[in-house]
Each structure stands twice: as structure tokens, then as C-alpha cells.
Amino acid sequence: MYETYWGLKARPFVNTPDPKYLYFSKEHEEALSRLRYAVEMNMGGCMLTGVFGCGKTLLNQSLIESLEKLGNYKVAFVTNPFLSHIELLRMIAYDLGAKSLPEKKTEILTDFLLQTLEKILYNNNDDGKHTVVIIDEAHIIEDKLIFEELRLLLNFQLKDKFLLTLILSGQPELKIAIENINQLSQRIPVRCSLDRFDGEDTKNYILHRLNVAGRNAPVFEEEAYKIIHERSGGIPRRINNICDMSLLVGFSKNAGLIGKDIISDVVKDLES
Length: 272
What we know:
Shape: elongated
Number of strands: 5
Structural class: alpha/beta
Number of helices: 12
Number of domains: 2
Helix content: 40-55%
Order of helices and strands: HHEHEHHEHEHHEHHHH
Strand order of the largest sheet: 2-3-4-1-5
CATH topology of the largest domain: Rossmann fold
CATH architecture of the largest domain: 3-Layer(aba) Sandwich
Strand content: 5-15%
CATH class of the largest domain: Alpha Beta
């Protein structure tokens, strides 16, 4: 709606996990480096934690995109793990290419799914492909059987390497949940976290997204960045909400640049 007015090719602050908009703060660079290390070194388990809206899903999508380009990885990406342990195993199996799985939910099916996944993992390895299973929003898992099944997946290994890398991603309470399951915690040697942006990263994040969307000239007045940082708490999702609505209001008011008054009005509306 406002794209032409601001000289944009697309809306730059949409809250969708599009890897091209990923901004690499030092923490994001470190986290992605650790995720890649876990995958490339066949480390078994890895955990990514961070407050809501800090870019975990986007980082996972970026990792998946890079692995797909390499071509020697098979990835299962579960975005909603609020499932039973059987449903989760079924979803992972389907993502990895399983066909015609039985529907009846029984413990016999659990064994069958584990056997199916084991076969898939060995076949992928024979084909020169490493298997990666990413569980996003893992902090919402309530069924302890799910964590037990995930632990069992890490039992599938050769003498010198794991047959899959399991990445658990979620809010900080995930770390507490994992640490309370000693057998699983011991199998997650690689851990990384994301925090809120500081003021400098908030500004650079906004400029990065505008640049990706086709705008190189200034849009926000310098003092606006400070207010955006303060009112968003440095959380990317909140920054996106404020900036998106500010571009809309600025367009409706025929503003040349977006200053503190527009930002303040937008924040009041978002918080009301």
C-alpha cells in the first residue's frame, strides 16, 4: 500500500521468516555458526534459545536454506510441536519422505515409526546425506514422552558419528525443561542463545531491512531510532510492528521522513 510512496519493492517489516531479511548481529552470527558446527560435525543435539520475537525461526530458516543449497542434507522442520509423541514422530517421518504410514495411534505404531525413521537415517547416510531434525517452538512441548522419543532418535548412530542432528529451538524456558531431563541434556553439547538488540543493532536492523526492500535513502529521522529501540525493547518482532505502521502513517500524512511524533503516535495505538 505504501511501497511506491517510500520507493520500496516490498514491505520491509512483515513478520514472516524470510531469510533474505535476516540481520546478523554478533549474537546471530555466533548462533548460526554454532548451528552449522553442530550439523557439519554431526554433533547430535543442539539447542537455540531466545526471548519471543528475537529471530529464532528466521535463523532456522536461514540454516535450512544454506543446507538445501549444499545438497547433502535432508531436513525435517517441525514448526508446531504441540502434538502427541506419536504425531510428532509421524510428522518427522513424513518430512523426511516416509510414505503410507498407518493412522492408528498405538504403542505398536510408535515402534513402527522409530523403525521407519531408523531406516530413513541409514538410507540417507548411505546416500551421502546427513539428516537434520529441527523442532521450532520446542518450549511449548508438555508431553515428556516427546522428549523421550527425541532422545531415542539420538541413539541412531554409527561408531564415529550420529545419524542425525537434532536442533531444539524455543524460548528460555526450554533450557530449564531440557536441564531437568538429564539423559537428553547430556546429548545436547552445542547451545546458543539470542537476546534483544541494543540501540545500535536496532538502527542497523531497520536500515538493513529497508535496504533489502529497495530503499537506500533515509526514511526515519535519527531521533526516531532511539524511540523505536526504547518502545520495542530491542525485540525484532516489535520493531517490525512499529516500523510497518509508521511507514503507513507517514504515507497517509505525506511525510518526508518519519520522526518521533509519528513513532510516538504509532506506539500509543499499538499499546492501547
